[in-house]
Amino acid sequence: MDDNSGTTSGVNSPEWPEETRRRHILVVTLIAVGVSCLAVILHEYAHALAHLMAGADSSTIRAMSADPTGSLSTTAQGWTAAAGPSFSLVAGLIVWGVARRLRGAAFQMAFWFYIAAIQNAAGYLVITPFGVGDTATMVERWGWPTWVQMVMPVIGAAMMFGLAAMVAVDVRARFQSVRGLRMAVMWPVLWATSILVAVSLVLAVLGGYDADVVFVMVMSMVSVYVAALMCSIFWGRCTFRGLDRDPGPLWLAVVVAALGVALWVFHGLVGVTIG
What are the pLDDT digits (tens) for 27-86? Predict the structure, then answer.
């Protein structure tokens, strides 16, 4: 069965009209935008909860940070820095396991969440030697040797290739041709990344963020779905299974995107303090 066949459910039906392809890309793009914002927020809440567990009086969650009040030991600062990427990795793997049992919009939300979450953890490992990000803070606070910083990007890159293989399996199970791959992943990633970068720039201006924070924010949005684009490396080794390809209703995708972006912007402009 070719990817040009199928209704929005993708099961034994005539040729996909151009309107159907555009709708599919739009729905998937909106879901990808919303859940990526959610993945970032949950990452910061993991930091905040770690702050409280380590003895901080409170912690304020913003768009790209969680800032504790009260003093923490150097060792505790390392643990709280590690909490974010660790949560993202574990949550991403759990959702990946669940996603394979889902269909429709539920699958799409789980699919894009696990990509964003695991890429978050891998990305921090990759940039460790530059002294930026959670894993760099962890290494510095714990006093780990320089060679560890050199190994971390290798681990991060390996995680990205592993994530790309996971994505390839899930997409190839639903789409048989490269044209289907472009509709399911390539175009949605390009559009979602553009939207996320635009939102982050607007947020940076409205929030008055420093240049270094803006750089990290924008680069995080640029890289959030890089591994999804890499899935083409493993495309030919995966099996087409004819699974349902319906991405769900457009209204639900709009709600997911609106809520995700609204939550991220709210945290960025106002901040939420817990504790």
Answer: 999 999 999 999 999 999 999 999 999 999 999 999 889 999 988 999 999 999 999 999
203 Cβ contact partners less than 8 Å away, ≥ 6 residues apart:
63, 209, 217, 264, 265, 268, 269
What are the pLDDT digits (tens) for 119-153?
999 999 999 998 888 999 999 999 999 999 999 99
